[in-house]
Amino acid sequence: MTLIIETPESMTKERNYILQTLLGEFLGLEWVHHPTSRQDIKITQSGNVAASISLPDVLFSTSENKWLDSASLPISSSPLWDTDDLGLDILLVKSVVPVIYGDQEPVSRNNGRNMYLPVDIFGSAFFMLTRYEELIVTDQDDHDRFPATASSAYQNNYLDRPIVDEYVEILWACISELWPDIIRKRRVPKKLISCDLDRPFDCSVATIKGVSRRLAKDIVRDKSPRQALDTILTSYHRWRHDYSSDEYLQAVDWIMDANEKVGNKVAFYFITKHSHHGYDGCYSMTQSVIRGLMRRIVNRGHEVGLHASYNSYRNLDQINCELGELKQALANESIAVDEIGSRQHYLRWSTAITPRYLDAAGVSYDSSLAYADRPGFRCGTCHSFRMYDLKSRKTLTLREKPLILMECSVLGEQYMGLGYSDDALQLMKSYRDVCEQFGGDFTLLWHNSHFESAKDREFYLQLIS
Ligand SMILES: [Zn+2]
């Protein structure tokens, strides 16, 4: 049974991308697109055209000169639609949903055979998945990143909910009501635990300058002779190339132990080349300690990926070079991998450029798309999806596994600053629970260098189980 989607004739490539993502990939349905002279979108089923779902067509009806222009952005204050008016049982975070594109005074209609939804579900989902607004709104933080606070999702209080997944659930509730024989794809929730190896071992004890700074902190700030002694001992071990007492390195093994106990596979992303002296890692893939770490990760069944360096996000040559270095390191250890995924260091990202370059380099998936300053659903979904290049109007081979939560976004003073409070833990758990509710992937980033307190381990263990 095939769904027939009739739409206006404009933006066929974009429509096919989003129809395939929502109906084909997310729901696993057969569908066919019929561009027609109509103004709205109508969904019927082959062999049963008496029943229908119709919805407004807003984003893809944008005139060509306004496409990728601020005139095509949603209105600043999203109208709210109470979906209870449909009279259907729908999986949602809340029954009232924001309307990104759609009617200004949203009300549905349902006579049992014909339904009208007041949301442009396909245009709104396209807006979220492609990060359309980030190509238009030019706000940046100190690291040239689009901040959560500049997003429509944050400003309209829907960054905490997977709005695209919710729209899909609304659509599915209507489809299954009108055509009960249609079966959707079953999706199993997963925990995608990951660790960016910014500092696989403690780099601050490797130089005289670093040791002096650490000692000053131990003695002057922390007034701890014991800590100072530890610093001297760690530094002595490092000088002898002995990493056995390194806390960051030990944390990597602890991460693997903890996740193996609950059946999770962890992705560890390595910085393989440096493009910024101050911000990139202090290690090289040729160091025996790194080669040993890589072997240990793979031998224990976990994943090795690329942590693309600070300035790589706008530089294809740099990405190629870094990916080549990782492939060489894997080959040197006779490690065969089918595909290599990556995450951008500092989550630096240019919607116009980065996905195209990662795709061109042959990276299988990216997992950078969370905001550094707030956790949540930057792409509006907790499911992986194929990416779309807005400039060249092409569906890429590259997939996105959207990052949902980075530990420092919640704990760090520079971001939400909630510290190790009950509020912080409850917030973190709420993302995990929502992902599970929607059969999605809870993608968690917790750095091995962020296990300084017992609270880190306590929070971590609660989140990965
Ligand atoms: Zn990093």
UniProtKB/TrEMBL annotation:
GO terms for biological process: carbohydrate metabolic process. Residues 118-203 form the DUF7033 domain. CDD domains: CE4_u7. InterPro entries: DUF7033, Glyco_hydro/deAcase_b/a-brl. Pfam families: DUF7033. Transmembrane segments: none annotated. Gene3D superfamilies: Glycoside hydrolase/deacetylase (3.20.20.370). This is DUF7033 domain-containing protein. It comes from Sedimenticola thiotaurini.
